[in-house]
Design a protein that fits this description.
With about 250 residues, this protein is of the alpha/beta class. It is built from ten helices and nine strands. Helices cover about 35% and strands about 25% of the residues. Helix 2 links the parallel strand 2 and strand 3. The mean pLDDT is about 95. Strands 1, 2, 3, 4, 5, 6, 7, 8 and 9 form a nine-stranded mixed beta sheet that branches.
Length: about 250
C-alpha cells in the first residue's frame, strides 16, 4: 500500500483564502492523504467555512487550538501532529496553494531516496491576487549543497521556506519537530531547522519547482512578526553561532 500523507493546515482569520487552500489539498492526484485543518481561534468565518467543507469531504478533519503566541502557527500545527496518522507530513499555510501533483511528487522524492531523506524543501512559486487573476511573481528558492553550507547560510538568514517542507513523520515521533514559540515567536521554525541539522537531519533542497505556490499579501504573519520589534532572527543566529563555534573549537 502506498504511504499515507498528512497535510496539516493551520488557520487563523483565513476566510479569504482557506477554502481554496483546503480544496487544493483535497484534490491531489495522490489518493492516500488526510487533510487536517486546525483553527487557531479565528475571529472571522474561517471555522464556519471549514466545518461546511468537512461535511462534503471525508478526508478532511477539522479541529481547534488555543491561540497563545501571536503570529505563530505552532499551537495549531501541534494539534495537527497529535491527530495525524500519516507516514509523511507537511504543513502548508492556509493562504497558500498546492498544484494537483504536488504530493505525488513529494512522495516520489522520499521513496526514491530509500530512507536517506527524512526532510526536504522545494522551490516555491510566488503569486499575488489581482482583479484579472493570479499573477506569478517568481520563484522562491534556497541553494546549499551540504550540511556545512546550510549551517553557514543559516547564520545569516533562514534558508528554508517553511510551508514547502516535507517530513518523514518519524521525526515527530522522535521529538525532533518540537518548536519554542515562547522564546522565538513566529520565527520558531528558523530555530527548528538549525536544531534539525544539529541533530543530524539534513533538509535537502529540491532543485526544481514541483508545485508549491506561495501567496504574497499584506496580511501575512511574516510581516506582523517583523512589526513586533523583536529581532528573533538575531537571537537565533547568535545562539547557533556560539553553539557551533564551541562544537568546532
Amino acid at each position: 500500500m502506498s504511504p499515507k500523507v498528512t497535510i496539516i493546515i493551520p488557520c487563523y482569520n483565513s476566510e479569504k483564502f482557506v477554502a481554496e487552500c483546503v480544496l487544493s489539498a483535497l484534490t491531489q492526484t495522490y489518493e492516500n492523504i488526510e487533510v487536517i485543518a486546525v483553527d487557531n481561534e479565528s475571529t472571522d468565518n474561517t471555522m464556519l467555512l471549514l466545518e461546511a467543507m468537512a461535511e462534503h469531504h471525508d478526508k478532511l478533519t477539522v479541529s481547534t487550538a488555543k491561540n497563545i503566541y501571536p503570529n505563530c502557527w505552532d499551537e495549531a500545527r501541534e494539534e495537527g501532529y497529535r491527530l495525524m496518522t500519516g507516514d509523511y507530513v507537511t504543513v502548508i499555510g492556509s493562504d497558500d496553494l498546492i498544484e494537483k501533483d504536488y504530493i505525488k511528487s513529494c512522495v516520489e522524492i522520499m521513496q526514491k531516496s530509500n530512507g536517506a531523506i527524512k526532510a526536504f524543501q522545494s522551490i516555491a512559486m510566488g503569486f499575488k491576487d489581482h482583479p484579472q487573476g493570479k499573477v506569478r511573481t517568481g520563484l522562491i528558492e534556497y541553494r546549499y549543497e551540504n550540511k556545512e553550507q546550510f549551517m553557514e547560510q543559516s547564520l545569516q538568514r533562514c534558508v528554508v521556506n517553511s510551508p514547502s517542507v516535507f517530513y518523514d513523520a518519524s521525526l515527530h515521533e522522535m521529538g525532533l519537530l518540537e518548536t519554542f514559540p515562547e522564546k522565538y515567536g513566529g520565527a520558531a521554525d528558523y530555530d527548528l531547522y538549525c536544531r534539525l541539522v544539529d541533530s543530524g537531519v539534513f533538509i535537502y533542497s529540491v532543485p526544481s519547482w514541483i508545485g508549491f505556490c506561495y501567496r504574497w499579501h499584506e496580511d501575512q504573519a511574516t510581516w506582523k512578526v517583523h512589526k513586533e520589534g523583536i529581532n528573533y532572527d538575531k537571537m537565533i543566529q547568535d545562539f547557533w553561532r556560539e553553539k557551533w563555534k564551541k562544537e568546532n573549537s
